[in-house]
Design a protein that fits this description.
Elements lengths: L3 H51 L11 E3 L9 E3 L25 H15 L5 E2 H7 L6 H16 L3 E5 L2 E4 L11
Antiparallel strand pairs: 1-2, 3-5, 4-5
Length: 181
């Protein structure tokens, strides 16, 4: 007849093997998740870039897309000139280090600047009603909701944080309007 201690050791060994198998599976799933997230971010960046390229550009500000040059050996007759990046008004790219505020429309930049000023003065988060008053807008529901929608989009894209419901502040790492903001 097997001993009780022997039976317990067998069950403990089986449980430990199960834990080891699950840890290996979790590591595999975690690695797969990292790869899937990387691919997802790359597709989001690609979509954003295509959106910038396809967005309408003011003809008075846009340089010619192609220039005629005298071809030399190994050159084609048309040379692409780098077009200015279009700034779509409703698209907000995902924040990443080094991304300048200038990629955002003026309305979004204004929200970021107000929150930057609050941060610099050591003041807390802002509500959308406070933002409306700060921007000289009537604090009517339509104006406040428009600001809330923009602020929520900035939160979703990593530019802002919402530490409390309805109260917004700059996200960790977002520092200023220039590159590296």
């Amino acid at each position: 007849m097997p001993s009780v201690v022997g039976l317990l050791e067998q069950r403990e060994l089986a449980a430990r093997r199960r834990v080891d198998e699950l840890r290996e599976e979790a590591d595999r799933v975690q690695a797969e998740l990292v790869m899937a997230e990387r691919e997802w971010k790359e597709w989001a960046i690609a979509r954003s870039r295509v959106g910038e390229v396809l967005a309408p550009v003011d003809e008075s500000e846009a340089p010619a897309l192609t220039e005629r040059t005298t071809p030399t050996a190994g050159q084609t007759e048309e040379t692409s000139a780098a077009p200015r990046a279009a700034k779509p008004t409703s698209q907000v790219p995902m924040w990443r280090e080094g991304l300048a505020w200038s990629v955002l429309s003026v309305d979004y930049q204004r929200i970021l600047q107000a929150l930057m000023d609050r941060h610099r003065l050591g003041q807390g988060p802002l509500t959308c009603q406070e933002m409306a008053a700060l921007f000289g807008l009537d604090a009517v529901p339509a104006k406040v909701e428009a600001l809330r929608s923009k602020a929520k989009r900035l939160v979703a894209r990593g530019w802002l944080a919402e530490p409390q419901s309805g109260r917004f502040t700059l996200a960790q790492g977002v520092t200023g309007p220039g590159a590296g903001s």
